[in-house]
Automatic annotation (TrEMBL):
Similarity comment: family membership: Belongs to the methyltransferase superfamily. L-isoaspartyl/D-aspartyl protein methyltransferase family.
Disordered: annotated span: 301-334
Lineage per the UniProt record: Bacteria, Bacillati, Actinomycetota, Actinomycetes, Streptosporangiales
EC number(s) stated in the UniProt entry for this protein: 2.1.1.77
Protein name: Protein-L-isoaspartate O-methyltransferase
Domain of life: Bacteria
GO CC, alphabetical: cytoplasm
Bias kind Low complexity: ranges: 320-334
Length: 334
C-alpha cells in the first residue's frame, strides 16, 4: 500500500498553465475517479485556490496533482508531521461527512485548505472550527485563510485529544489516530470521519451517530501523518534476521526478538482458506476481517499465491489467472 503520508509531491509536468485550468482538470479527474460525487464538493474544489495553502509544492501542477500530498512540516527525525492532504482523499472524506449548508463542522488537524473547502460547502451560515496542536500550522492556516477570504473559519491551537465540549454536525479527523476519543462531539444524526490505524493499516471510517451508538461505514485504506500529543502512539521497530528484515508493530506486548528471529528461520505453516480471488480483485477486506475478528492478527499474515505457481507464498501481487488466499504464521501450528 502506498504511504501517502510520506509521499512528496512530484512535478510530473512542468506546466505554465494558470491555476484555474489546473483546478478545473483536478475536479474533472476527481469526478472520473468517483472521489467527488456531489455538485457541492465539486464546486468547493473548483473554487478554493489550493496553491495558496501549499507554497511548498515544487510547481503549480504538483499542487494540483490529485494523488499527491504536499508536505509542509517535518519533525527533527525528518518525518512529515504536517501536510496538505491529497485531493482524492480530501474529496472522499468530505463526501463521507455528508456536509450540508449551515452545518457546524469540526476539523481536527489544520492546514487551511480543507477548512476552506468545508467553509465553501457549508456556506456563510455554517460554522467551521479547525484545531491543530502545532503553532507553526495554526499561524500559517490563519494567515492563508485570511488571505483567501475565509477568515470566518475559527483556527484553534491545542491538542484535539482534550476537546471536551461541542456539538457538531460533522467531525473530520485529518490526522492518523489509534483511538477515537471524539464520540461525544457529533450531534444526533451527525457524522465523524476518522482515519483509524489498526494492525498496521490506516482506514478512513465514517461513523454515523444513531442514538447512543455509532454505525461504521465505508472503510477506505489511506495514509496520514500520525497524531501527536496525548493520543500519540509509539510503534515498536525491530531489526530481525541480522538486519535483513525490519518489523514495525502498532502496539501489543514488548517484542520477543529472539523468538521472532527463530520464527523467520523455522519451518513456516500455512492455512489456505480455499477462497480464490481474481488477480484484479482487491482483498484488503481479508485484513480488515482478521484485524477485527482474530486476536492473533499481529501473528498471522494474509498471503496469496498465483494458482499456477506452486511454492512459497508471494509477498507481492503476482500476475496469474487466480490467487489462493491463505494465512501464514511462523512455527508449526497455523
Ligand atoms: C495531514 S495534516 C492536516 C491536513 C489539513 N487538514 C489539510 O488542510 O490538508 C495533520 C495535522 O494534524 C496535526 N495534529 C497532530 N496531532 C494533533 C493533535 N493531537 N491535535 C490536533 N492536531 C494534531 C498536525 O500538526 C498536522 O498539522
Amino acid at each position: 500500500m502506498p504511504d501517502y503520508s510520506e509521499r512528496v509531491a512530484i512535478d510530473t509536468e512542468s506546466s505554465t498553465e494558470p491555476a484555474d485550468r489546473l483546478r478545473a482538470d483536478m475536479v474533472a479527474r476527481l469526478r472520473e475517479q468517483g472521489a467527488i460525487r456531489s455538485p457541492e464538493v465539486a464546486e468547493a474544489f473548483a473554487k478554493v485556490p489550493r496553491e495558496r495553502f501549499a507554497p511548498e509544492a515544487p510547481s503549480l501542477a504538483a499542487a494540483y496533482s490529485v494523488n499527491d500530498v504536499v508536505i509542509t512540516r517535518r519533525g527533527a527525525d525528518g518525518r512529515a508531521t504536517s501536510s496538505v492532504s491529497a485531493p482524492w482523499l480530501q474529496a472522499v472524506m468530505l463526501e463521507a461527512a455528508g456536509l450540508t449548508r449551515g452545518a457546524r463542522v469540526l476539523e481536527i488537524g489544520s492546514g487551511g485548505y480543507n477548512a476552506a473547502l468545508i467553509a465553501e460547502i457549508v456556506g456563510p451560515e455554517g460554522q467551521v472550527v479547525t484545531v491543530d496542536i502545532d503553532p507553526f500550522v495554526t499561524e500559517r492556516a490563519t494567515r492563508f485563510l485570511a488571505g483567501t477570504g475565509y477568515s470566518h473559519v475559527k483556527v484553534v491551537l491545542g491538542d484535539a485529544e482534550h476537546i471536551r465540549d461541542g456539538s457538531y454536525d460533522a467531525v473530520l479527523v485529518t490526522v492518523g489516530a489509534w483511538d477515537c476519543p471524539w464520540g461525544h462531539l457529533p450531534a444526533p444524526g451527525g457524522r465523524m470521519v476518522v482515519p483509524l490505524r489498526f494492525c498496521g493499516i490506516t482506514r478512513s471510517i465514517t461513523f454515523v451517530r444513531d442514538d447512543d451508538r455509532f454505525v461504521g461505514l465505508d472503510p477506505t485504506v489511506c495514509g496520514f501523518v500520525p497524531i501527536q500529543g496525548a493520543g500519540a502512539h509509539h510503534e515498536q521497530v525491530a531489526a530481525l534476521a541480522g538486519g535483513a528484515v525490519t518489523l514495525t508493530l502498532d502496539g501489543g506486548p514488548a517484542l520477543d526478538t529472539a523468538a521472532l528471529d527463530e520464527a523467520l528461520t523455522a519451518e513456516p505453516s500455512e492455512l489456505w482458506t480455499g477462497i480464490v480471488a481474481r488477480p484484479d480483485e482487491p482483498f484488503d477486506t481479508l485484513h480488515l476481517w482478521l484485524a477485527t475478528h482474530d486476536d492473533a492478527c499481529t501473528r498471522r499474515t494474509p498471503w496469496w499465491r498465483p494458482r499456477r505457481r506452486p511454492g512459497l507464498p508471494q509477498t507481492s501481487h503476482p500476475a496469474g489467472d487466480g490467487l489462493d488466499l491463505g494465512l501464514s504464521s511462523g512455527g508449526k501450528s497455523p
